[in-house]
Amino acid sequence: MHVVDKGEGLIASAQEMAPTPKEGGDKKRLSTGITQLDLLIGGGFLKGKAYLITGDSGTGKTIFATAFILKGLMEGEKAVYVSVDDKPSDIVEQAASLGWDLMKAIADKQLLMLDAAPFFTGHGGAKKELDIPKTVADLASYVNRLGAARVVIDPVGPLVPSREGRHIRDNARTLIRSLREHLETTNLLVLPSAGTGDVEEWEEYPVAGVIILKLTQTQKGMVRTVLVRKMRATAVELTEHPFRIISGKGVVVDPSMPGAAPSAPVEPIPMPIQTPVAAAPVQAVQPQPELPEEEGNIFEAWNPIEEKAKNVTKKGA
Ligand SMILES: Nc1ncnc2c1ncn2[C@@H]1O[C@H](COP(=O)(O)OP(=O)(O)O)[C@@H](O)[C@H]1O
Ligand SMILES: [Mg+2]
Fold this sequence. Notes:
Layout: H1 9-17, E1 29-30, H2 35-40, E2 45-46, E3 50-55, H3 61-74, E4 79-83, H4 88-97, H5 102-107, E5 111-115, H6 117-121, H7 132-146, E6 150-154, H8 165-182, E7 186-192, H9 196-203, E8 209-218, E9 221-231, E10 241-246, E11 250-253, E12 300-301, H10 304-316
Parallel strand pairs: 3-7, 3-8, 4-5, 4-6, 6-7
Antiparallel strand pairs: 1-2, 5-12, 8-9, 9-10, 10-11
Helix pairs in contact: 7-8
Adenosine-5'-diphosphate binds at residues 55, 57-63, 94, 97-98, 245-247.
């Protein structure tokens, strides 16, 4: 498959060459949720593998990860989103601002938001010794119980104990191998690029692909770009493809760089869940699936009803 990212080529190609799985797409691959990105990587992520998405703060990593989850939900898959730094409610609200309704999927028990922040930040949690087998067992208990097909860990860094020297390499390798052994899911790991060294260190590990998001200076100012730096078993062009994040539309990959030939109309990604959401949708949701009793000390299932009740109590107090 040859895709040219020039002028109208990508759009034309997108329409001709983006089969949905139902139309006989590659069953070994999962759509990323962004049609034009799928085209750049041979149809999507290989099932059961781990992928890394990296970039500075605000480049769109969480939004790409959300699009990946939503695409799965749209295909009838279940998904787990592990949130470490952002509150699950913030991710849900940001998705809502793009026209994506995560609350319905949570209510329908298609999506489980796991909050790892309390472990890392609450009650001396940051000082707790993190044990990779225990972390993966805890995560696997939720993922396997739900029967999820897609997992996002946003960001993955805090799950790797000791962020110094060789230990990162060894521990990152152990984490990724362990995820692969215990989960059958396709995993998207978010890795903020605090320093350029970080990605290179992680890249050596058994991740099947690396996607880099950047803010790039052009003649017309700063643009967001996506670069597929590594994609196992797939030929990729090492080109930075501009994209935009647009309210109500989501991620829109431009067919040409600004300043190049006149740009063709952009193709928004399809809305996985069309319900428009106006404000923070923290209401009318069924309880989460019950927690596994023997696990649950690193990741907590986010329950919007409980959170709402807590906030009401706080305000009333
Ligand atoms: N509804 C929206 N419309 C336009 N841009 C948005 C919208 N929501 C978020 N963004 C943009 O996306 C950025 C955050 O993306 P995010 O995926 O959270 O970044 P990262 O995870 O890489 O830090 C914001 O800084 C903002 O510019
Ligand atoms: Mg983020």
